[in-house]
Amino acid sequence: MRVIQISDTHLSPGKTHFLDNWLPLARWIAAQQPDLVIHTGDVTVDGAGVEEDLRHAAGLMRELGVPFRAVPGNHDVGDAGHGHQPVDAERLLRWRTHFGADRWVEDAENWRLIGFDAMLLGSGEPEETAQDDWLRTVMSNAADRHIAWFLHRPLFLDRPDEGDTGYWSVKPQPRSRLVELVRRYSVGLVASGHLHRARDFMRAGTRYIWAPASSFLVGPKIVAEPIPGEEALGAVIYEIDGESLEADIVPIPGLSRHWIDDVIEEVYPRRPEG
Ligand SMILES: [Fe+2]
Ligand SMILES: [Fe+2]
């Protein structure tokens, strides 16, 4: 079974800055003939604020003609504790209307692929607890399958026990609960997006893959401290066969190397605090 992970397409019919990268991505996906496409979020420029972005992006995903699953990113459903766009029931409903569930299970050969909504973590929303219960259930009834997680925000940047990295990774408190699950169930793979950087590394027997974006790169105007991984655009190809899961981060021909630094004020204008 071939699974393609794409991430951070940042699509919008109103803000078309990265739309030129959709066609090469869609063509490349068609050529790969995958059985499943997984989108790890920031599908849209601003689905958290503009429903049309969600409708448009979901339409493009359906046009691929391949079964797909997606987990939302901060730009799709807002973020826990965000001053202007907190993740809430209304935003989740909008996501679910256009993309279906924000948490899901796909069994592939001897692997259980689990997608869940990283934006809920630390939100205190009722759905956070519901998701936590659900995650524990689908982990415990995975029987002898290996487990792979797909979520937007990485659990950590360098080490599971590191401190708060702010915007870039899951907060230490929800992270520690998840890391405990990773250990207890020997999770084989944790795949994420959000950073717009590519990285493939092991920590304590678990493989962590940061899927590159296909929209834009994030440069020094945005990232104050250096973040590990590689400045690259692309996608991830998984070949799952019985017990085995192979993963490759690959470039995609024809993508323009946009930098968010050049257009940040147009695409994501700063708002006054409060
Ligand atoms: Fe993103
Ligand atoms: Fe993100």
Number of helices: 7
Overall 3D form:
globular
**Cα end-to-end separation:** 48 Å
Helix percentage? 25-40%
Strand order of the largest sheet: 4-5-6-7-9-8
Number of strands: 13
The biggest sheet amounts to: 6 strands, mixed
Which percent band covers the strand fraction? 15-25%
Q: Helices and strands, in N-to-C order?
A: EHEHEHHEEHEHEEEEEEEH
Q: Poorly predicted ranges (pLDDT <50, ≥5 residues)?
A: none
Which ligands accompany this protein? fe (ii) ion
Task: Name the average pLDDT.
Answer: 97
Label the structural class: alpha/beta
Q: What would you report as the Rg, rounded to the nearest angstrom?
A: 17 Å
Q: Strands, helices and their partners?
A:
Elements: E1 2-6, H1 22-32, E2 36-39, H2 51-63, E3 68-70, H3 74-77, H4 89-99, E4 104-108, E5 111-115, H5 126-140, E6 146-150, H6 172-184, E7 189-192, E8 199-203, E9 206-210, E10 216-217, E11 235-241, E12 244-250, E13 258-259, H7 260-267
The chain binds fe (ii) ion (FE2) (2 copies).
One fe (ii) ion (FE2) is lined by residues 8, 10, 42, 73, 194, 196, 213.
Structure explained in plain terms:
By secondary structure, the chain is an alpha/beta fold. The chain is 27% helix and 22% strand. It is built from 7 helices and 13 strands. It binds fe (ii) ion (2 copies). Residues 8, 10, 42, 73, 194, 196, 213 line the site of one fe (ii) ion (FE2). The site of one fe (ii) ion has 6 residues, from helix 3.
